[in-house]
């Protein structure tokens, strides 16, 4: 398909219905969220995705300031609108203004108001599709930072590294078909060739009936890697006073500016309000000295027991997904995303014996800025969002791993209330267990244990 070159000068069209941008919220504009379930598979590591009815709403997100990615986004959206006409496409407002004139059907723009946008995200969006790098995926996950349930994410790697992006864009038709038809019943394929009136009625009542020829079989479904998140709350000394409830946590103003993570995980990328705590982080929590010339002094407790007082540039608490990010650059170990754990990594510690730790995912970690800390505060960032105001002496960050509910999911059983971030990985169910996408990424992208020298 050929698309017209991207132009950032396009505005909302008011003359043609086909180019319309529908600004949400609008009563009844989008259907309710289609229930999805996750089933344990024979491999007992990845899950299978099952839709009870066809998905109806997809949130499309892309890398910023990348014209080639914009053209790919238009191509993907055109394919979805022409091949799956019942699917509604939702974009961030600025993206919707840029692409709507090149699409054959109306599209939707997320509300600019945070509360209204959250309602759309939680009540209507069935699937998130990202085109970009790891920062785009983190931004998408950040939209659900205060939600225990995240829709499946279909990520196309079009960024610099793309360690989290699972699919190549050239595979977009196959990828979306695999996701859309995942869990579809066999009724359509079994009855479309029949001529009986009863069979025709059965087909008409089947929600998948309009997609003849796309059925993949009841044993073929999209594979889900459930990425664990961290559950975090930030508490100031005022939270512990007798005049304030102990459960009150700081709701800091955030900015996307961070020395190593430049992507702001906010809904409207100029509105850096943190959701009410507790909130969830896909990558990491970072406490850092910031511009202060002095090392930080942070007390570390695990499950209510004092572990040590860290004197370092800072501390990182990362998920297995975040173990290949800032934690890895700071000397932390690489952890497979299926290992339920959290990683505690010091940043340039004063003591040479302070090494990274791997803790159980259900461990409760408390980081407390010491009263003897030489600077007045410590910078805190959550998945790239930094508190505008440093956390002062006596302030605490409380962290634990998210309970994703996998332990209650027996083999062959299904569940709709799993936590974590469901990431759709390549390949249908039943492939060899040795085809581990994570191992491929470790070797192909991080060049794990590659020797130095030319020609390698």
Automatic annotation (TrEMBL):
Which Gene3D superfamilies does the entry mention?
Probable inorganic polyphosphate/atp-NAD kinase, domain 1 (3.40.50.10330), Probable inorganic polyphosphate/atp-NAD kinase, domain 2 (2.60.200.30)
What keywords were assigned to this record?
ATP-binding, Kinase, NAD, NADP, Nucleotide-binding, Transferase
Keyword set includes Ubl conjugation: no
**Which molecular-function annotation in GO is an example for this chain?**
ATP binding
Instruction: Family membership, please give it.
Output: Belongs to the NAD kinase family.
**BP term (GO), one:** cellular response to oxidative stress
Recorded GO CC terms: mitochondrial matrix
What SUPFAM superfamilies does the record point to? Answer: NAD kinase/diacylglycerol kinase-like
Q: Which InterPro entries match?
A: ATP-NAD_kinase_N, ATP-NAD_kinase_PpnK-typ_C, NAD/diacylglycerol_kinase_sf, NADK
Instruction: Please state what the protein is called.
Output: ATP-NAD kinase
Which Pfam families does the entry link to?
NAD_kinase, NAD_kinase_C
């Amino acid at each position: 398909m050929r698309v017209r070159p991207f132009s950032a000068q396009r505005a909302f069209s008011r003359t043609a219905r086909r180019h319309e941008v529908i600004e949400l919220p609008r009563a009844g504009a989008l259907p309710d969220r289609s229930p999805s379930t996750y089933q344990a598979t024979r491999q007992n590591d990845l899950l299978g995705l099952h839709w009870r009815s066809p998905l109806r709403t997809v949130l499309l997100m892309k890398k910023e300031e990348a014209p080639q990615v914009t053209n790919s986004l238009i191509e993907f959206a055109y394919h979805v609108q022409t091949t799956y006409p019942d699917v509604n496409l939702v974009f961030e407002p600025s993206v919707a203004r840029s692409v709507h004139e090149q699409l054959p059907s109306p599209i939707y723009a997320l509300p600019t108001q945070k509360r209204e946008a959250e309602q759309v995200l939680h009540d209507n969006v069935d699937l998130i599709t990202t085109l970009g790098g790891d920062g785009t995926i983190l931004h998408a996950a950040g939209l659900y930072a205060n939600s225990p349930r995240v829709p499946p994410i279909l990520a196309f790697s079009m960024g610099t590294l793309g360690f989290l992006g699972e699919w190549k864009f050239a595979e977009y038709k196959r990828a979306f078909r695999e996701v859309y038809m995942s869990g579809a019943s066999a009724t359509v394929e079994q009855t479309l060739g029949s001529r009986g009136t009863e069979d025709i009625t059965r087909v008409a009542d089947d929600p998948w009936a309009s997609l003849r020829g796309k059925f993949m079989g009841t044993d073929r479904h999209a594979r889900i890697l459930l990425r664990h998140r961290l559950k975090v709350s930030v508490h100031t000394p005022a939270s512990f006073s007798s005049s304030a409830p102990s459960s009150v946590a700081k709701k800091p103003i955030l900015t996307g500016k961070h020395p190593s993570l430049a992507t702001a995980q906010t809904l409207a990328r100029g509105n850096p309000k943190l959701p009410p705590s507790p909130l969830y982080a896909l990558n990491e929590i970072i406490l850092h000295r910031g511009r202060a010339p002095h090392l930080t002094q942070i007390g570390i407790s695990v499950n209510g027991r004092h572990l040590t007082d860290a004197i370092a540039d800072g501390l990182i608490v990362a998920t297995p997904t975040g173990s290949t990010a800032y934690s890895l650059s700071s000397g932390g170990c690489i952890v497979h995303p299926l290992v339920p754990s959290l990683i505690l990594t010091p940043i340039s510690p004063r003591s040479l014996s302070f090494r990274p730790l791997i803790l159980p995912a259900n461990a409760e970690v408390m980081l407390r800025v010491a009263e003897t800390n030489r600077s007045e505060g410590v910078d805190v960032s959550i998945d790239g969002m930094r508190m505008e105001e440093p956390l002062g002496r006596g302030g605490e960050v409380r962290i634990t791993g998210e309970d994703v509910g996998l332990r209650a999911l027996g083999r062959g059983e299904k569940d709709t209330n799993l936590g974590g971030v469901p990431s759709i990985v390549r390949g249908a169910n039943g492939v060899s267990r040795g085809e581990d996408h994570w191992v491929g990424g470790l070797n192909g992208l991080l060049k794990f244990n590659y020797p130095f020298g030319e020609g390698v």
